[in-house]
Amino acid sequence: MAHEARAFTCGCSGLTFTQDERDFMQRFKPWGLILFGRNVQNRSQLTAITQNFRELVGREDAPVLIDQEGGRVRRMKEPDWRPHPAAAAYDRLDCGEDDKAALVREGARLIAHDLIEVGINVDCMPVLDVPVEGANEVIGSRAYSSDPAQVALLGRAACQGLLDGGVLPVIKHIPGHGRANADSHLALPVVHTPRAQLEASDFAPFRALADMPMAMSAHVVFTDIDPDLPATVSRKVVSQVMRGFIGFDGLIMSDDLSMKALGGSFTEKTQALFAAGLDLALYCWSDLREAEEVALATPFLAGRSAERSEKALDRLRASGALQVAFDPVDAALRQQSALAMRG
């Protein structure tokens, strides 16, 4: 149950858990585990690590997350897994909007097929950021389009494809990272665009998908809303924009706390994101001293956050019950054919 989980997601160091990692997970009961390339070898190994995590935390449906977007952001690669295109490739297809959306949905369903067979039930996609000319390339081809309406259309198709396959989507990076002038992995982006313009463009896809179960925050300062704090730790941005204008009432997880955009100790960063109104902390690396700082500053899921977590997991249970026959070989061939004919 959600109330037995501490409100953070952690990473791990390798292909199996060390004894110290096992002790950490049993002690702190993280809500979720996030996997990276360093944790991926093959199907049997991935299945074993996801099963082991759930045994350690004592929850059969404990979330296991990964960033499997396609393009340059994919942790599971050849030869064991088929490549998937970057989001931008779909908008360049020489076909109608409905056909593009259908292909995005099918592509996401293929990704879900790859994930669910190894026990991964949360994918940190789609990217709903709207890139603008001159912005940092950290988003780039990860975005579906520079048109907010098109981002919303294709982003919803991606979410539905994941849900069709029993995988929870995470829309990111709320309320928008496309205009950022720096890579938040390395520095703090500061956006000076007026709020009205942000609402019409950057925030619009998130507002259109406010019914989705999970989102990941942006480590970006929006000076016209809060000139002092990045969105992840800004009560103003969380309450006025994420929960307010956008209307998102799902589970909001921070982006990685080890990214350079956020200052302070891990204790301070963790306390700040919860004070701002986020539901979950995300720590992606494998330094157990840092992870313990995050864990000790993190509450157990309770109240609205626990309700949001249960609601998200209920979406998985419902989607799993409704799954229909799916042929990944046929779907992959359709994807390859469409992308080969890209106009």
What keyword list fits this structure?
343 residues, TIM Barrel, six-stranded parallel β-sheet
Molecular structure report:
It is a single chain. The chain is 41% helix and 12% strand. Helix 1 packs parallel to helix 10 and helix 4 packs parallel to helix 5. It has helices at 19-28, 43-57, 87-91, 97-116, 148-164, 195-200, 204-208, 235-245, 266-276, 288-296, 303-321, 328-340; strands at residues 6-10, 30-35, 64-66, 68-70, 73-74, 122-123, 168-169, 171-174, 190-191, 214-217, 221-222, 251-253, 281-282. It starts with 5 loop residues before the first strand and ends with a helix. The chain is of the alpha/beta class and 343 residues long. The chain has a single domain (2-340), classed as Glycoside hydrolase, family 3, N-terminal domain (TIM Barrel). The strands form 4 sheets. A 6-stranded parallel beta sheet has the order 7-6-3-2-1-13, sandwiched between helices. Strand 4 (68-70) and strand 5 (73-74) form a beta hairpin.
In short, what is this structure?
With 343 residues, the protein is α/β, with parallel strands linked by helices.
Number of domains: 1
- How much helical structure, as a percent, in the residues? 40-55%
User: Largest beta sheet: what is the strand line-up?
Assistant: 7-6-3-2-1-13
What is Rg? Answer: 19 Å
Oligomer: single chain
- Percentage of β-strand residues: 5-15%
Helix/strand-derived category reads alpha/beta
Number of strands: 13
Distinct helical segment count = 12
Task: Give a short account of the largest sheet.
Answer: 6 strands, parallel
Intertermini distance: 49 Å
Shape: globular
User: Which CATH class applies here?
Assistant: Alpha Beta
CATH homologous superfamily placement: Glycoside hydrolase, family 3, N-terminal domain
CATH overall fold name: TIM Barrel
Order of helices and strands: EHEHEEEHHEHEEEHHEEHEHEHHH
CATH architecture: Alpha-Beta Barrel
Average pLDDT score: 94
